[in-house]
Amino acid sequence: MLKINIKNLPNSEVEIEAELAAEAFEAYFNKALKKIGENVQIDGFRKGNIPEKILLSKIPESQILEEMADLAIKEHYPKIVEDKKLDVISYPEVSITKLARNNPLGFKIKTAIMPEVKLADYKNIAKEINLTISEKGKDKNKDQTVSEEGPNLTSQELENVILDIRKSRAQKKNIAEISSEKFLDKSDFPDLPDKSDFPETSLPEFTDEFVRTLGPFENVEDFKEKLKINLKLEKENQLRSEIRLKIIEKIINNSEIDLPEILVKTELEKILHNMEADITKMGMNFQEYLKNINKTTEDLKKEFRKDAEKKAKFNLILYKISELEKIIPDQEKVNKEVEAILKNYPNADRNHAILYVQEILTNEQVFLFLENIN
After folding, report:
1. Model-level pTM?
2. What does the pLDDT look like over 173-231, one tens digit per residue?
3. Which residues, in sequence order, are bridge partners of residue 78?
4. Superfamily of structural domain 2-113
5. Taking the chain, what is the end-to-end CA distance rounded to the nearest angstrom?
6. d(CA 322, CA 111)
7. What angle do CA 324, 330, 335 make, to 5 degrees?
8. Would you give the DSSP letter of residue 166?
9. What element of type H or E holds 250?
């Protein structure tokens, strides 16, 4: 029913060439037609309840064939991976080689498998860095370092944040006054004073009444206590990120990895996708932005290649440690997070969502494991 040929490629990649028998492929026809019909709107019929003859007259055969191929590959690819015991670590690159009614389905899949990784002594590296940071916490001024309860917050840091809040409020007031008196919109504003330009004597007084305008605070003391908690959490998160970065960078630098090119390409695509999303949020067209900076997407890929390689190594290291330490995310948590994603993004692929959540939760558990080695 399914002929399979697997070819090993350089850099820990494999190519799966497969052919699904015509009869087995044809069995996906009704499923494909039904799935397409769920999203087709035709006057006089309820969505999802359109007769087959009407659907066939409205939907091109090529679209049905593509859906059939998609359904078939999604069902058979995981079986191939499991049967052939392939330690796959990347999304597959799929290409269709044969596609016609009452004929076999031919397809090729290129993917990366777990490469040879000569992993550094990650336990000793984590222990060394955790101990170094702990010793620094004992040696430095206690007001500015990490105690057993977490990073402390100095009174000066608290006052600096409060001063910044007062300056921000003064700046907003200044803009509002200019806008209402002279201008139609912000594009008409002259050079406005920066927050740092406001002398402290011109700032709003820090009183019970003032803090109530900032949120649900009873008085100045209540505001300060809640601000302390938030700032301390912020410092803890920052410190945790710094520790994690030091540990993983040292493990990467002391490990040897045969890095699959497909992983680097995936990370490059993610970097460019995020960059395009950020540019679009600022109201700019990404292609126009590239013209303005006189660069192409290929130029950006060259610039970001080292970042992509580092991120790919980062993911491989965490994956390898999770495998060695048998770190597996709680299935209940995985299901909960997946359902939340599918609720917010109904068109998201469930299998991709599961893999994404599993990776995020596993990585978090690996970092917690490394942080607690002492």
Report:
1. 0.68
2. 766 665 555 444 444 444 555 555 666 667 889 999 999 999 999 999 999 999 999 99
3. none
4. Trigger factor ribosome-binding domain (3.30.70.1050)
5. 55
6. 21
7. 130
8. H
9. helix 220-253
Domain boundaries, the chain: 2-113
Closest CA to 70 of 25, 17, 3, 15: 25
Ranges of the chain with pLDDT below 50: 140-148, 182-190
User: CA–CA separation, 301 vs 308, rounded Å?
Assistant: 9
Q: Which region, left, alpha or beta, applies to residue 95 given φ > 0 means left and ψ of -120 to 50 means alpha?
A: beta
- For residue 288 the two structure tokens come to 């126009």
- What is the residue-wise DSSP string for 184-248? SSGGG--PPPPGGGS-GGGSPP--HHHHHTTSS-SSHHHHHHHHHHHHHHHHHHHHHHHHHHHHH
Q: Which residue has the tokens 């109904």?
A: 346
- Cβ-based neighbour number of residue 65 at 10 Å: 20
